[in-house]
Amino acid sequence: MILKKALIVLFFICVTIVACLHHMAQVTASEYSTFSQAKLPSYKYVSKHFIIYSYSRKKAAYLAKKAEVVAGRVIGHSGVSKFAPWKTKAIIILYKNHSEYVKATGQPGWSGGTAGIITHEALTHRAIYLYEGAPNLFSNILPHEITHLVFMQIMGPSANIPLWLNEGLAVYEQKDKGRSLKIIAARNMKSNDYIKLDDLIKYEKVPEGRTELFYGASTGLVEYLFVVLSRTYYVKMISLLKQGASSYEAFRGAYGKAFKSFSSIERGWKKYMIKKYAR
Questions:
Q1: Which helix (H) or strand (E) holds 103?
Q2: Considering the entire predicted model, what is its pTM?
């Protein structure tokens, strides 16, 4: 009986991880999708950075409040002193249920939310598409999506946004901070079967067959840069990326002079991950 219950719990943990990874991969693939004919709910609510479309004023106001809190947190973590908002506010659409969401956006059945671009009232907006009752809507999906939108705005059109930083930061802003993924990455580090730092910062797409390791390593690296190392180095890296430097150039330019070698940064990151997550 105990073994049966343990297997059931393990099954649901695996399902949750797979669903999150499906969502992350889908977000990456659809960041530039255009939904010009997406149906909009009837109620409109406007906040500082967002326009919310929902079927309820109360839910729209609550969603706007949550969105602004996440946006403020992302801006605070971005390393910039000022944030220039979108010329046209980002739109968040909250559909009534999953079936309406899938019908309006054309997303697959497992999708819990997506980001894209919408043309509405002759204006082009960045947009987030959600539905009421989605699992982990406010704890994971909304923070993940908003992080992508805000970070892209912060970096600007000429910046080179590394995949590891874009995805790692988005997972880091989730309520659980990708803990299950960092545990997987840390355990692989302990057995010396992990994505090396030099490879991680150069990836332009998620490595096939190593999705969990990539997301765990990426958000673990973001955490290490935030928690352990001086934020000054991070701000320098962001500045270099905004100037068009490659991921490798920006990382080396920001952290290289502060450490004896590139491998010393990796050793520190690996030690931190194993100590905190590989128990």
A1: helix 98-105
A2: 0.80
